[in-house]
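Field guide to reading this record: the first block holds the primary sequence, the second block holds the structure written as discrete tokens, and the final block holds curator observations. Each block starts with its own label. This record concerns ArsR family transcriptional regulator, catalogued under organism Paracoccus jeotgali.

BLOCK 1 — SEQUENCE
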Amino acid sequence: MRERSETKARMDLLDRKILIELQDDASQSLDDIARKVGSSKTPVWNRIRKLKDAGVIRRQTVVLDPAAVGLDTCFFVLIRTSEHEAGWQQRFLAALQSRPEVLEAHRLAGEIDYIVKLRVSDARAYDAFYQALIAEVKIYNVTALLSMEELKSTTILPV
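BLOCK 2 — STRUCTURE
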């Protein structure tokens, strides 16, 4: 894994245009990206390489349709804990990282300590996640919220 600077990467308008194109469709050819951003292939390739080296571009991947792969049930899990020691946090993080159904996990400020986004096949699959999680770490309170409809979902950052 490349080391990243803690400071914000310095990018100009061309870098931002390239990033917009890559976020929209990273499988585009360098020629297509260059044409769309008003540059040529070699400078675009060099800028992409520099953006990767700077850690701006973490990785390139594909976005799947959850329903098409049988994961059309989305839960947001709100977790409160009475444990705040480093050892507990490490076990909790390891438990989340080992579960492929966990798409996102965030530590929060406020009454809720963590929020976790899951994609599973159904309520039984959520329960299996829940049972495994509470077997691995002590949790004070868990609230599961079933998403009835996804109104917006994107990986595109407004650069």
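BLOCK 3 — OBSERVATIONS
Residues 13-53 form a domain with the Arc Repressor Mutant, subunit A fold (CATH 1.10.10.10).
DSSP finds five helices and four strands in the chain.
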